[in-house]
Amino acid sequence: MACIIWYLHLQINILSKFSDLPIVGSSLCIGVILTEFNNFDIFLQDSKLLEALVENRKRSVAYVGAFLLKDDPETDPSIVSGSDSAKSINDLKGKDLFKRLHEVGTLAQITSIQGDQVVLVGHRRLRITEMVDEDPLTVKVDHLKEKPYNKDDDVIKATSFEVIATLRDILKTNSLWKDHVQTYTQHIGDFNYPRLADFGAAISGANKLLCQQVLEELDVYERLKLTLELVKKEMEISKIQESIAKAIEEKISGDQRRYLLNEQLKAIKKELGLETDDKSALTAKFGERLEPKNKQCPPHVLQVIEEELNKLQLLEASSSEFNVTRNYLDWLTALPWGNYSDENFDIQHAQKILDEDHYGLSDVKERILEFIAVGKLRGTSQGKIICLSGPPGVGKTSVGHSMARALNRRFYRFSVGGLADVAEIKGHRRTYVGAMPGKMVQCLKNVGTANPLVLIDEIDKLGKGHAGDPASALLELLDPEQNANFLDHFLDVPIDLSKVLFVCTANVVEMIPNPLLDRMEVIALAGYITDEKMHIARDYLEKTTREACGIKSEQVEVTDAALLALIENYCREAGVRNLQKQIEKIYRKIALQLVRQGVTNEQSLKVSLQQGAKQLREKSTEEPTQIADDGPGGKKLEDGNSHERATTTTLTESEQAIEVSLHEQPNGTATEESEATSHEHLVEQLEADKVQPTLLSSDGIATTDQPVDSKVNIKTSDVKDVKVDNVIEKVIVDVSNLADFVGKPVFHAERIYDQTPVGVVMGLAWTAMGGSTLYVETALVEQGEGKGALLLTGQLGDVMKESAQIAHTVARAKLLQKEPDNPFFADSKLHLHVPAGATPKDGPSAGCTMITSMLSLAMKKHVKKELAMTGEVTLTGRILPIGGVKEKIIAARRSEVKTIIFPSANRRDFDELAANVKEGLEVHFVDDYNQIFELAFGSNSKPQI
Ligand SMILES: Nc1ncnc2c1ncn2[C@@H]1O[C@H](COP(=O)(O)OP(=O)(O)OP(=O)(O)O)[C@@H](O)[C@H]1O
User: Fold this and answer.
1) Is any ligand 1 atom within 6 A of the Cβ of residue 354?
2) ω into 136 cis (within 30 of 0)
């Protein structure tokens, strides 16, 4: 008992110290989980308590009691931290403190005291019985012992094992527990069940209230169960901790990996020069690009480039501004500053190239040569804008191309047909998203020289934009006065376009905006007459098409008659594009025909080759005798393979059948005897079939040559390599089979009448598609006094309608002059029609034709046969000039007109025409309608009865 008293005494002091423990925080748990295997540090703030402890220790009383406080905010979740109760814990003394203590606590040994730090080791359980002193709090206690238990109880054993196993598992996964491992392994022999339960609970890190439960539990089995619960919970926490750690580790390592890979990628890109974002790489790239043109590059451009490069360095690589600047620099450095191709002013060379590419067009070629000659004398060819005008397909674009070739300039073509946006020419401002420079800057970048030949196609079809006027922008571009400092909106630095040679093309010159037209040198390409088309077709179109189709000239023949028929019946327009299409059509069909033939040949060849090779191999093993070839050029048999290579004979069906029957000999091998018989039979068959073997050319197309004696070839084929002469299989396109290639004629003769009836006269018209003939027909609708009137049909435009009114008046005056008593016009309602009704027509040039048609009806006289006329008429009967003389003459020739009447003012145009265009025509030039009257109704014109 003395011992107990001693203990009690000690513990009174210790307990009083414990009143301070809540302040120290971590020491709270000590009150619950102190075991003799662990040391715990606590810090005491209560000086009185500390003094008492030091005093006790000096007296070798080194034991205290440690108790957990009730309602402690750290242990009891129902107490909100910072509340009044939590705050006042430090101030608790005496009874108040006593009431707040849990009854069961731990007897702890003080192992050291350093300042306010006290190190405790727990030993056994205590229960408070009564309070002895208030400050420091001193209490009486009972020592508690576990309830007796059966050491061999299986359930207790099993539970304890489970606790141990769980603790081991936790130790494996949780590194925090490693410190405890040592203690655990050191004292493993000292463990009994209650101590194991205490140890497990002490290191579990569970809630202190739960630990207090373990402390208060005196039943060993129950205590073990409680501990097991705590360590199992700990195990789960460990697992969660592990998975959290793993996930975080993965995330971190993933990020790190990505970072590393990115860095590597950057390094690789840089190494390969692909690094786009790298500013220094970009600067180096632009610098490198600019290096060769540095000297020729204008200083103002160099300055801008330098400024932009500096700006680029300051910009964030991911910013949009950076991309804009980079794009801008890209364009700026890509332009061929000061890089010119050497111009060739050699007239002979130019003539050669122009003749090489185009037939005829002598006047056009002459104009181009003149232009080059001027360039030679001046040393430069800029300053002029050439406009090639004419109907479609007359070669405007290709003449432009030839010009570039002749002058040794790079060629660039762009079409402005329907172009309505000025930005297409002048570029967009850089600030817009997706901004692009204009066509000219694109052209310069594309061609890589600063003096290309730029062909602006379809300039007459320029659109009218709501955002600016493209014609005005073109003016700035084309005008030699302005284009030395052409300013593209995107580029924003002046570019010198004065060295660029501009060639425009147009179908109708009148449609070109006047200020533009004013600056142009118009060269008209009128269209081709039949004779010219024949030459173009023969010497140019056919040749190029044949090559394009991979056909050899000896395989095809298109006769002159077929070509003529093609031109006259299918391709009557001014240009030759349609003619080109038709020729292509013919050649495509021929190509198909040849390939089909070639494929058949190839297949049958394979069969015969296999057969022949097999037979030869058999033969050469059985009968090595060499047999001379009796065909021309035959060779001695060397081996089966050489035979296989050389044999190129095609067999007919019957031949193949025999080959197959040979092949199907029993045992798979033909006997020598049966072979001999079979071959004889084969030869007979072939003779009967009149087989014409065809030789395949290297490209798989059957080539043709001389017919061969199939008997000789086949006879030798089983022992020798066969040398078969080619069979001619020329495809001939003639008038008779032309329709098989190009279908039925599309055009029928423009001539409706052989001899025009009374009231009908042939006129000549001009359209954007070239010239054409047209009839003006006048008929009487009704007659009666004062009924004179004029009805018009045939989709006539306003000008043509007016022209008809004028014609009516002039015709009336002329009739009055010629036949004063004839009241025809005053009393007749006339109907004037111009076929074809579906085609809109306009213009004043049919004036004289209309008058003649009306007079013919009035006087009931035919006009002269094969006569056509054109000319505008004034009210007084004067004849005014018209346009498109060449086109009209070409159209007249097509309609087999022999006599043409033109206004006198057009004589100059006529004289300029080539002799072959004028050939065989009787052309009259007139000033006044009276002259036409004489020519149309001359002495041989008789009134109709
Ligand atoms: N005199 C000629 N000699 C040889 N080939 C010609 C001749 N005239 C035109 N061609 C050929 O006719 C085809 C059409 O010519 P191109 O495309 O130049 O016509 P275009 O007048 O520019 O037509 P569009 O007004 O429709 O643009 C080209 O293949 C061209 O080579």
Assistant:
1) no
2) yes
CA of 394 to the centre of ligand 1 (A): 5
Angle between helices 299-314 and 320-334 (to 10 degrees): 150
Q: Is residue 845 annotated as a catalytic residue, yes or no?
A: yes
Report how far residue 121's alpha carbon sits from residue 869's, in angstroms, rounded to the nearest whole number.
136
Binding-site positions: 390-397
At 381-428, the pLDDT tens digits run 666 788 998 888 888 888 889 988 888 889 999 888 878 788 888 888
- Does ipTM top 0.85? yes
Integer Cα distance of 741 and 35 in angstroms: 113
Cβ burial, residue 800 (10 Å; 0-12/13-18/19+): buried
Known catalytic residue: 238? no
* Residue 360 in contact with ligand 1 by CB distance below 6 A: yes
Q: Where are the domains of the chain?
A: 2-144, 154-244, 279-334, 347-524, 530-593, 595-733, 760-936
Q: Tell me, what's the pLDDT at 658?
A: 35
CA–CA gap between residue 563 and residue 780 (Å, rounded): 44
CA atoms within 13 A on the CB side of 390: 23
**Span 347-524: which CATH code?**
3.40.50.300
Q: In angstroms, rounded to a whole number, what is the distance separating the alpha carbons of residues 441 and 707?
A: 63
Half-sphere exposure at residue 284, Cβ-oriented, CA atoms within 13 angstroms = 10
Top mutation candidate among 368, 416, 571, 577 for ligand 1, by most atoms within 8 Å of CB = 577
pLDDT (tens digit, 9 = 90+) per residue, 675-703?
433 444 434 443 444 333 333 333 333 33
- Closest atom of ligand 1 to CA, residue 394: 21
**What's residue 697's pLDDT?**
35
CB 400 near ligand 1, within 6 Å: no
pLDDT at 131 over 60: yes
pLDDT digits (tens, 9 = 90+) for 15-34: 333 333 322 222 333 333 34
Which bin fits 690, alpha (ψ -120 to 50), beta or left (φ > 0)?
A: left
Query: Ligand 1 center to residue 580 CA distance, Å?
Result: 9
Among 356, 361, 397, which is best to mutate for testing ligand 1, by the most ligand atoms less than 8 A from CB?
Answer: 397
Contact 580 CB / ligand 1 (< 6 Å): yes
CATH architecture of 760-936: 2-Layer Sandwich (3.30)
Question: How many angstroms is it from 396 CA to the middle of ligand 1?
Answer: 6
> Which ligand 1 atom is nearest residue 361's CA?
1
Which tens digit of pLDDT belongs to each residue from 640-668?
333 333 333 333 343 443 333 333 333 43
- Given the residues 140, 426, 720, 888, the one annotated as active site: 888
Binding residue positions for ATP: 390-397
* CATH code for residues 154-244: 1.20.58
Q: 530-593: what CATH class?
A: mainly alpha
CATH placement of domain 2-144: 2.30.130.40
Q: Give me ligand 1 centre to Cα 391, in Å.
A: 10
Asked which of 40-49, 348-357, 367-376, 603-612 is least confident by mean pLDDT, the reply is: 603-612
